[in-house]
């Protein structure tokens, strides 16, 4: 059967979709070249904000109307449980985020009977089971050439942090670390298949611990893998920016000089209400520590605007923190109350218009900061891992530096995808650096 997976949400979802793709291919199904061609379409859903959930369920509704065999997987399924069938009565199946390995069996059940009697509304939500299939990669089951430069690798699932606004612990369940040796052998086999860069995924990867083996231990083990050029990871928490982590950076040149360090707010009052377990000052200290180690260390962040009770003064604290931290990039989100979370009991009292205004202010601050920071890199030489032709101008190629900055360059003759080149930076934009190979 030809299938297509439509993914919403974060990198965890991207990774889970890839795993499902691999599991379906292993059972003899075929990846369709586009959605129209597919008979089976799976929507991998997100529920971190209401808008994300609505988009995913709206998409599934359209697919059902188009006559596709339709399934929904991921976070929204766990939040809604059987209620998902109230919204989508003709949905064929719904599978929670820790249960995706059940999908091939469910597809078999559905497709082994004539269309007229096909079962619908099959539900497998799950609770805290250890997911199966976390290590399934399409590159392992595809025959012929497979040329992905980059691959995600799940190292932890779930989250025990319980930040007041966040639904992730409810939908992704308790924190669990994958066995150390399993991760190392997975990355080894990806490198053998030509993958040059891995990104290790978890809600809070610096907390990784498998019987005493820590995240820095994992970085050191992956550093030794032949053929692998770069190691990234996401997300981090300032409490993990320890001397032990810095010493792993020092010993492991493959580990990219970039941290995604969600700050959420710059106001100590709001941070405390959010249950983030750091102050503004502690956060800035962690950033300063990384930049003292390497002045070009890139730090990116997530921020929520319009958290209940966020005053103009709180918001200005966020603005000033963002300038002090000199974020290379930031992702701004408008607060959305999620049922069952602590903050959903508080009044969502910042108006829609005010959230939008704060969002726009932070976006334009980031644009200015991005240009300013990137301008400092003009005339420097950045080592770039080549990803392929640039999206805008195909005569230029693009790749990323260690700080995850997008670098577009010329000339491209004789350059191959997955190689590393040195690029002298000539132009700086907020999100892109432009240069030439030296
Ligand atoms: N409303 C808005 N943004 C949220 N995030 C998490 N929960 C919410 C919410 N209820 C944001 C945080 C997180 C990112 C993935 O999504 O900034 O880091
Ligand atoms: Fe990712 Fe959170 Fe959305 Fe789930 S709810 S897909 S963990 S962002």
Task: Give an overview of the whole structure.
The chain has 438 residues and is an alpha/beta fold. The protein has 3 domains: 2-124, 3-Layer(aba) Sandwich (Rossmann fold); 138-375, tm_1862 like domain (pyruvate-formate lyase- activating enzyme, Alpha-Beta Horseshoe), CATH 3.80.30; 381-437, OB fold (Dihydrolipoamide Acetyltransferase, E2P). Helices cover 34% and strands 23% of the residues. It has helices at residues 11-26, 50-65, 75-80, 84-87, 103-111, 138-141, 168-172, 180-192, 215-223, 243-251, 268-274, 280-293, 312-325, 352-375, and strands at 2-7, 30-31, 40-45, 69-74, 93-95, 122-124, 150-154, 156-157, 176-177, 197-201, 209-210, 213-214, 230-234, 258-260, 298-305, 329-334, 381-389, 397-400, 406-410, 420-428, 432-437. Strand 5 (93-95), helix 5 and strand 6 (122-124) form a beta-alpha-beta unit. Helix 9 runs parallel beside helix 10. The longest helix has 24 residues, at 352-375. It is globular, with a radius of gyration of 22 Å.
The CATH class of the largest domain is identified as Alpha Beta
Give the name of the CATH architecture of the largest domain: Alpha-Beta Horseshoe
Count of distinct structural domains: 3
CATH topology of the largest domain: pyruvate-formate lyase- activating enzyme
What is Rg?
22 Å
